[in-house]
Every structure is written in structure tokens, then in C-alpha cells.
TrEMBL record, chains A, B:
Residues 166-222 form the NrtR DNA-binding winged helix domain. This is Nudix-related transcriptional regulator NrtR. Residues 195-240 are annotated as: Disordered. InterPro entries: NUDIX_hydrolase-like_dom_sf, NUDIX_hydrolase_dom, WH-like_DNA-bd_sf, WH_DNA-bd_sf, WHD_NrtR. Residues 35-146 form the Nudix hydrolase domain. It holds the Pfam family NUDIX. It comes from Serinibacter arcticus.
Amino acid sequence: MALQLAVSSVILALRPSPDDDGDDGGGVLGLWIPLVRRIREPYEGRWALPGGPLGEGCGLEQAARNALTTSTGLDPAYLEQLYAFGGLDRSRDRENEGPDPDRVVSIVYWALVRAEEDQAAVRAHNVEWFPVDALPDLAFDHIQVIDYALARLRAKILYSPIAHAFLPTEFTLAELRAVHEAVLGRELDPANFRRQTLASGGVEPTGRRLEGTNHRPPSLYRYRAESVATSPTPPPRSAS
Amino acid sequence: MALQLAVSSVILALRPSPDDDGDDGGGVLGLWIPLVRRIREPYEGRWALPGGPLGEGCGLEQAARNALTTSTGLDPAYLEQLYAFGGLDRSRDRENEGPDPDRVVSIVYWALVRAEEDQAAVRAHNVEWFPVDALPDLAFDHIQVIDYALARLRAKILYSPIAHAFLPTEFTLAELRAVHEAVLGRELDPANFRRQTLASGGVEPTGRRLEGTNHRPPSLYRYRAESVATSPTPPPRSAS
DNA sequence: CGGGCTTATGGTCGAGGCAACCTGAAGGGG
DNA sequence: CCCCTTCAGGTTGCCTCGACCATAAGCCCG
């Protein structure tokens, strides 16, 4: 049988990055991706997106979640289908290295994991985290897949409340704004961000205040996301 | 081998519909979909989306185009991947009819065909056109797939110049506006539509005028779409 | 304990997009 | 020849968004 179907995931987490742009040098947030080292022949030894074959008796999304958890130990807070690659599409920019990657169809998901959980993957074998602006050489066309996932994230964070998937269930508006700034790569006005975030309805105030903040100053309220839809794209639901 | 991979398409065309809403009764444009009658056991005799198994030696998009042309005889002006369904996802709302549709993964594309071409499919066997608001009972969960494709079309026509995929290479602004009105289901202001269409840059005036119009009146310019990207979603291109 | 610093919070203002509406012009049909 | 339909362009008002400013509320440090 010449047809293989794999399910892989672009997993995105937000952690303080040591990338010294020369700005302030403080703990600037950046996007990180866990990759696994291939142990089989096509591109053996290269880094690749975590994934696995389509499991038995479960749907595509569950298969993606299983493969993701098995290979990295993570439990994503958000998971959505990205694109289905396959056939000879991926051989566009390959010359003739490796045997025959034809007849390999891979359905790729993209996932967001919370900050406190992104350390769980350290335990897994052959898994290493890389910042998205300093990726190693990747197997297949995975670099393009990652670029596409990043474009999707940057586009979707503008109109959909998915930023809190990077954060715990309760967070301050400053933390949420830091997520947006890290993803979009530019600073946002605190006042405007507060207004449009509260007006969008994706977030609600808990009423509780945050007192023990490390060195930050004034009236910090805490906000909580109301409903985190894990997979808003599939057909059962029509886009608003 | 328990894994089957199929490629099917939601094909959309615009043709005058005989649906008498009681408005003006004239040739109102409506969306139509070609369906094929199943001749094999799961849901035999029911109408289903045209498709076929993943062919040899070609990519997913080319496979979708081949299956589409083979079963309906159409050549779509626009083709884009919609979603990958499979595993047990589709058994959510099935009780226990049919044998075992598990392990069937189908990658669904959506396509737009031009008005002058949508008659070509009449020749094909077992193919019939249905208006989207009067669909018969469909096999599998294809009704949800169609709903999802319609939602994508209505959402994407608002920000992307894909409406001219329903029209010949040159068309009047009135024709383009009629397409938008038919897809969105509401009337649009001619002046505002003209302004934002010309400002969007997706269309350019040819300078030629249309004289022999049937009964319509005055200065009709013709416009031509500049570049029709068939598949704007895949990773090589990042969303603007 | 108090000054200075950082940051949230609310307000204002101007630019731009958009929907609705109006007026004039160009043809074609009765 | 008059009327009717439709395009073409203009105007107005509303809403949104980004930029900017002022104030207040803590925290840090002297």
C-alpha cells in the first residue's frame, strides 16, 4: 500500500525569549515551537513537526491530539485544523533527495499551549523547543507549514479571542496585551486595547484584583475568558 | 487496507433560479450545486458531492480538479481547499446506518464555475443540478459540508475578489454586483459598490463600452479582473 | 515616610471606512 | 417625443480605530 496518512501539528507557545534585539533586554515574550528529531529515513536526523499516523477508531482532531500528546507530552488549549498537504504538492521545491515521499498525505493542525504547561515537553525524548525566528533546518516543507500557521495565528488574533489560550484561566489585561504584542510584533496602545477587548465580549472581569504583583504598580483587575471554543472552524458551526 | 482517502468538491455556480419568492419573478440569480447519484453501497441511490479516490502521481489540488472534471465535466475558475473530514468525526450524527464508514478520510475542496460553462455538466451521467436552498437528502454529512462551503463563500466574498470567478473574463459592474447580491442575499447600493470595488484594486476598467445591451440603458463600462489566484490559501503565500 | 517612577484608566480628537440618500446624465422603449 | 431605468458622482452622518493627553494608583528607593 503506497498511501500513508499522517497527522502532525504546529504547536505554538509563548515564553520569554533570550533574543536580544538591543531594546530593553528584559524578558520579552516570543513564540516557540517544539520539534522532534526524525529517526527514520526520509530526512533522518532532521527536525520535524510532531505527529504520527492516523490512529484507530477516532476522528481526525482526536488523532491529532493523541499524536501531539504522545510525542511531546503537551495538552493544547486550542487546536484547529490548518491544511491538508499531500500528493506531489510537497515535492515542488524538493529536488530528488530521499526515496519517494509521494503518496504521503499529512493533515496538519495548529495548536496553542498555555505558558505554565510548555515545560512538560522537556521530559519527552527527541523534543526540543525553538524560537520561531531561529528555526533549524527542517524536514520536508515543514518550514512553509510553520510560516503558514504563523500567518493564520497573526490574522486570527485580530478578530478572534484566541490569545487567552496562551494564558491561564485568569489573567490581567496587561498579560493579554503582551500576548498580542508578541504575536503581532508591535506595541499596542494600552487604552485602545482595553476598550476594544472589553467591547468584543470575549473577556469578562472577575471583580477580583491582583495585589501581589512583582513590581508593577496600580489597579490591576483580573479578567477571565468566558468560552474557549477549541475548534471553531469545522462545519457544524458557521462563521459569524 | 482499512483506510480510504477520497477527494470531493462543493461546486458552486450562479444561474437564474425559478424560485418565486414573490418579489419580481424575473430571472433572479441563485446558487446551484451539481450532485452525483451514488451507485455503491453506503447510501446507494442518494445524492452526494462529486469526487473520487486520490489519483496517482499528482497533488491533492490536481486530484480534486481531476475528480471534479471526470464526474461532472466542469472546469472550475476557482478552486480552494475547504476542509479535511474523516475518522469518526462524520459519525457524530449518524446512528448506525450503513456498514462502516470509519477510516474514510475525505479532503473537500470548493470550486466556482463560470456561468457559460455550467451547462457542460448536463452531458455527464448521474449528475443533476440543485439550488442550494432546495437540496435533496444527501449521503453522509454532505449537507453540513455544503453549509460550510456556503459560509466560506459568503465570508470570503466580502474581502476577496472571487466573485468574478462566476463571470466571463470581462463583465460589467452591474453583473458583478448581481453576483454579490445573489451570494449575500441582499441588495447592494450601486454607487457604494462601484466605489469600493474600484478602490479595492481587484478589477480594472478596459475602457471599452458595452453597446448592445438587451434593454439596459446607459454608459456601461466593462471591467476585467486583473489576476485570478486560483488557490490563495496554501502556505507559499501569506495572507495579506 | 515621602518623592519619583511606572502603568492602568478614562477622555478627546482627527482620519478613514461605510451605509444611506440625493441629483444629474445617458440611453432605450413605448 | 416623453418617460423610465440605470449609471455616475456627490454629500452627509455614523461608527471604528489609532494617536495622544491627563489623571490616579500603587511600588521602589532614598
